[in-house]
Inverse folding.
């Protein structure tokens, strides 16, 4: 089944193609629904589609909040972290400032930016749940990544019927019915 998703089509016996079809359709529908639910959750807070896409990309870079600041060496000692040099402190402050400016370029209002960022993190968790459901039955991470990055957006509005089986005739050696199963 991983081969079908990885290569978009495979040739196999007709019986095996029918068996693969049901599993593949279920997994693709889980990916599509997970992606759709994540988008709906984010759309409830962010009405502009472009802003929603940009804030989701921003959230995927890592955890961030507009209230973050660089901790003093005393605070770092309490957290059992190594103290920062002046150069290290400047680097972290510049990095935080750049992230802050990047977020405020998407949303000029700080409160709106915080709400949108929180919704983006929640949308990522919703999508992660769907990924883990698929990984439990299909442990190939590259295939799961392809399902969410390529197949889920392709089939977003489609209610089902993600695969097509085409009969190719009989195999020479044992006269078994050969079929090609392909993603539509």
């Amino acid at each position: 089944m991983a081969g079908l998703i990885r290569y978009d089509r495979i040739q196999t016996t007709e019986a095996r193609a029918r068996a693969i079809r049901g599993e593949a359709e279920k997994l693709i529908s889980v990916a599509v629904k997970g992606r759709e639910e994540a988008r709906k959750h984010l759309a409830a807070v962010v009405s502009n589609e472009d802003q929603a896409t940009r804030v989701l990309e921003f959230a995927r870079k890592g955890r961030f909040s507009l209230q973050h600041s660089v901790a003093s060496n005393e605070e770092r000692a309490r957290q059992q972290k190594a103290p920062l040099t002046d150069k290290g402190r400047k680097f972290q402050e510049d990095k935080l400032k750049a992230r802050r400016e990047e977020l405020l370029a998407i949303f000029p209002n700080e409160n709106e930016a915080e709400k949108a960022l929180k919704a983006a993190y929640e949308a990522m968790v919703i999508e992660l749940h769907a990924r883990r459901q698929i990984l439990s039955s299909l442990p190939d991470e590259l295939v799961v990544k392809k399902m969410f990055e390529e197949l889920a957006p392709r089939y977003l509005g489609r209610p089902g019927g993600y695969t097509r089986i085409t009969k190719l005739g009989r195999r020479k050696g044992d006269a078994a019915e050969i079929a090609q199963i392909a993603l539509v």
